[in-house]
Request: fold
Amino acid sequence: MNTVRAGAVPVVEWVRVHPLAVRITHWINAIAIFMMVASGWKIYNAAPLFEFTFPKDLTLGGWLGGALQWHFAAMWLLAANGLAYLVYGIASGHLWRRFLPVSPAAVLRDVLDALRGKLAHDDLSVYNAAQRAAYLTLMLCGIVLVFSGLAIWKPVQLQELTALLGGYEGARVVHFLAMSLLVFVVLVHLLMVALVPRTLPTMVTGRARRPS
Amino acid sequence: MKRRPPSLADQSASRIQKIERRLFLRRGLSLGALALLSGCELTDDEGVQKVLWAMSRWNDRAQAWLFNPDKLAPEYPESAITQPFPFNAYYAEDEVRVVDGTGYKLELAGLIRDRKPWTLPELYTLPQSSQITRHICVEGWSAIGKWSGVRFRTFLERIGADLSAKYVGFKCADDYYSSIDMATALHPQTLLSFRFADEVLPPKYGFPMKLRIPTKLGFKNPKQITAMFVTNTYPGGYWEDQGYNWFSGS
Reply:
């Protein structure tokens, strides 16, 4: 009978990084954001606000009617999932624990470090200041997108909200700008995942190797 | 040494490995295929279509629930009117059909007590009012215009329409057709309009009449109406049957 040779398999210590609720809502959100942005670009193309349109291959829906169907179906997924995340984040204290404090000075320092390729990612269970700012920006964008979207969708029934956002045409611009910022932060996020690939399985399993 | 036949455990282990590899490959392929799929092809998938249409029907119900019959669309001063007001239809402007007003009669059908057709002079004798409201197109653009005519509610009451019915449907001279919910038909700003910018509606804006509904998207405002009917059977519409949301409330 073979004896188990201690030390042959290195003992790996795992730490829990992302709670299950965060992982589930993260991936549902990723799908919902993809559907909303890709269909939204097709809707934008039907009456462009600015002097450009989005490449057809990056859009979803085939034609305006299809894109609207996607947009108005996925909006429920986005809103319900976002609400679930916020309720969980507030009730469990996850939001305060992981995202606060976030000081502008620390964010600036971390962003500069990241640009020089010096940002430390030793402990994945703690968000650095740049991450905190990025994810909070995404949450804020999501909230602005939902409200400006409602203002565009219901400029009569929710006209007080629409007026607050600069009227129907103003709300369209707000919706577009919030989308632009969101897409920018998502692209940076994806770039960071590509640079620190071990963060990807962590968002699936929830675990990361304990830093040695 | 005698060759030992591979044990059952070995066999199944290698088989599992193969299956796993195959699954991994297939998953990778389908991910790739998904990435390559244009939005069009994904949208054309039968299962996807079913979900999207079901969600659109769900959105009809959600909007009917959200619709407040007393909430008025914002009105604007004359100075806010968009000049020139954009033309829009499912055809180009040079294909606009011109309806002859002299022989024109509005046909009535369905759950209506008095289905006698109406001539234009008869319609013009009904009490008239005006509104300056924002027309919002399903494409996203908007324009402010001035429409004048009879409150649709007044007309429905005059002809003895069944106001508890679900839908009012419209047929138009340009082969367009559409339908609306009764709650919207009875809204105080829903106007059977005969005039645009204080002039008789030109053909491109819907002569002899356009149902102006400031609480719905532009394509729900039928032009060149030749017949209308009241019904409890879902009538659909030209764009609605192709995928635009039926309720399309603002």
Remarks:
- Chain A touches chain B through 32 residues (CB under 8 Å).
- Residues 14-48+60-209 of chain A form a domain with the Fumarate Reductase Cytochrome B subunit fold (CATH 1.20.950.20).
